[in-house]
Write a sequence for this structure.
């Protein structure tokens, strides 16, 4: 641990917005105000770009009611970016840190952002500039190494569990016409988000019926057989797929660019994997299918946010600044699960280089052996993260009235 | 008004599921139990198909806690259908009504279902069978004639207002990479649902920025000019479009079937209007765009339901059975707005033939003169229906820290 510094704090947010990342910023600010070694509290507008552009805002000027309300405000209040540092940027970054007497730099984001934070920490160290850099984990993708899970994930998981349960009831009601429903979730490289839809399943025959993750190659014949088997049994199928699904050759499962190019009318862009599978089912099984794709709505839904997620996001923010002031640097705060029932989590800390640019995939034991659903272990892992049970719905017993006529001809 | 009947009640649900249609069924059952002239209370499984197939369930056997919970259960608990009656069906229907001594038939649905109800009422009348038929309005599309609005609409409107507000914050945060967002809502023939996204706009520069309804022909050049104009001013654009958008020739705005057919690789199905516009923007304006398409999730979201909508759905159910028992038939219950502030609505009743198969479009005065947004009058009309204001979010004042360096080179 480095010697303890005194100076200003700079906070920045990066990558895809979430329901919980502002809660982390709220936790950082509230805790920073308690720390006598922290002078000014600055925010960079649009992540590291705001540092490069010297676009800083003074967060001590915000009302405390605003800071408190950040705990319930989705997206990224300071603005975000996706930006990879290039060689020319380093001197500029250091200039900005020096000019504003920054001693603490906190960066909230995913594995790319942790790489940026790591590079900033190394730069400061090489140039002998006293800067404590701490990464604040944030990603709906839940794919950061070492930490048990990532703030942002519990909320997107709750959104998807609710959406798929509701949408499953929809299919159950109208299966006489809308028979197959495909729900495409986010997740470019890992299937954590798609897997979370299983938390919406509240009965053996209820949705989702099939779940496909990018951790397993997508095999068309097996997929069609899976769909047909459920369809033959129930007359309806709800299928959740990851936008990042890949085939056995490692290529994204969607109508390929080649197909589009051959279209002499020009440049029509085919839909993603959801639309592709709708077509596959319609063509091959002659069953009507449709696709829902909540897109970015899923990652910033505050109405469906997990309270546990919001609270943990706040906590990692608090811990991040405490650790920075205590002298830690080039580290990321982690969550460590202590027990599952009752659910208890503590924070820890890990070197940024163990997290930067790496992706935690959904492990084998969380995927069903048929590769078309999740396992019981996954449900045990994910259930506490969504912050309590879903709302209870009515289920009619549907006591049959005795027939008085012969069957309809 | 016909003479008053005594006998059994049959309830059925039809068309697309909603957040509110079960609330109507709950209202019907609770009220029916108060009516001494109502004997058994039956439900038909999957709408008129359940009548034809004599698949009836006894709703007096359900626990009253279940009936009460229907007020908060989305989709269609009795099952739904999309089925057009054919000539052969009429005798069968009458057989079923006679066999089960049905005196009251209540059908919840949209304009197709009101046509079915109308035909059933006419059939009974022609054959001198005593049957009082009342239509219970239900459609997220909000396109039934005569009634001020339709149960189901307030909830889908609230979902979309919330989704677009949240998703707009997302774009605001990450506009440095995700610049244009297109949100495709439901609505085949009318733009009521798409229009409701405007209720999510909480500032002059906040989302949505552009709204396109099927009531106006879509003109590509004008659309691109609209998008560019907002982009040049704000650096980001959130656009809400209706799945049923049509061009000047009346054809759906999406990559046409012809394009797909010319693809020698076969039968790839292009996405809908949202994906099409993503491509249009990327190709012509060279700006990165993405599409969210909540699909059926929007119509069955209980988490985002409007309490006013759920309550009105319950009320029209109660009124439907009261009117049937009082001797009305071949009618639909309507909602009549008495005042806007405070919002007050009463019920009325109208002949089914004035509603059947007709579509109420969004009127001219509800659409902006540029045809790319809604008017103030629309907002006044729709605002009370979503059941109270959206949750408050934090807005940072972002007090700028004075620059100490020259601009980044």
């Amino acid at each position: 641990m480095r010697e303890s510094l005194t100076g200003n704090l700079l906070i920045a947010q990066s990558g895809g917005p979430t329901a919980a990342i502002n809660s982390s910023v709220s936790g950082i600010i509230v805790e920073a105000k308690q720390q006598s070694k922290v002078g000014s509290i600055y925010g960079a507008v649009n992540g590291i770009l705001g540092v490069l552009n010297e676009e800083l805002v003074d967060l001590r000027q915000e009302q405390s009611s605003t800071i408190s309300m950040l705990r319930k405000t989705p997206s990224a209040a300071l603005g975000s970016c996706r930006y990879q540092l290039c060689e020319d940027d380093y001197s500029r970054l250091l200039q900005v840190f020096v000019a504003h007497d920054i001693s603490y730099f906190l960066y909230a984001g995913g594995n790319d952002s942790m790489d940026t934070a790591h590079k900033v920490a190394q730069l400061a160290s090489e140039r002998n500039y006293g800067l404590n850099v701490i990464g604040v984990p944030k990603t709906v993708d839940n794919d950061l190494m070492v930490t048990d899970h990532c703030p942002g994930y519990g909320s997107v998981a709750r959104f998807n569990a609710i959406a798929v349960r509701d949408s499953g009831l929809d299919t159950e009601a109208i299966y006489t016409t809308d028979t197959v429903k495909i729900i495409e979730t986010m997740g470019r490289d890992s299937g954590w988000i798609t897997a979370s839809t299983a938390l919406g399943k509240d009965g053996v025959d209820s949705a989702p019926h099939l779940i496909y993750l990018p951790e397993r190659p997508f095999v068309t014949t097996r997929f069609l057989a899976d769909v047909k088997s459920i369809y033959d049994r129930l007359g309806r199928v709800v299928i959740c797929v990851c936008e990042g699904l890949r085939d056995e050759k490692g290529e994204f499962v969607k109508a390929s660019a080649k197909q589009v190019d051959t279209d002499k009318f020009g440049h029509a862009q085919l839909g993603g994997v959801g639309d592709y599978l709708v077509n596959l089912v319609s063509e091959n099984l002659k069953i009507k299918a449709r696709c829902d794709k909540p897109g970015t709505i899923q990652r910033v839904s505050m109405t469906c946010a997990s309270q546990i997620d919001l609270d943990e996001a706040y906590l990692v923010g608090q811990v991040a600044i405490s650790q920075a002031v205590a002298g830690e640097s080039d580290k990321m705060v982690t969550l460590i699960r202590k027990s599952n029932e009752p659910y208890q989590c503590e924070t820890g800390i890990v070197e940024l280089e163990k997290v930067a640019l790496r992706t935690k995939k959904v492990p084998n034991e969380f995927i069903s052996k048929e590769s078309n659903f999740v396992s019981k272990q996954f449900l045990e892992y994910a259930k506490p993260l969504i912050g309590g049970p879903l709302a209870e719905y009515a289920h009619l017993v549907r006591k049959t009235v005795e027939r008085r006529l012969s069957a309809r001809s």
About this structure: Chain A touches chain B through 105 residues (CB under 8 Å).
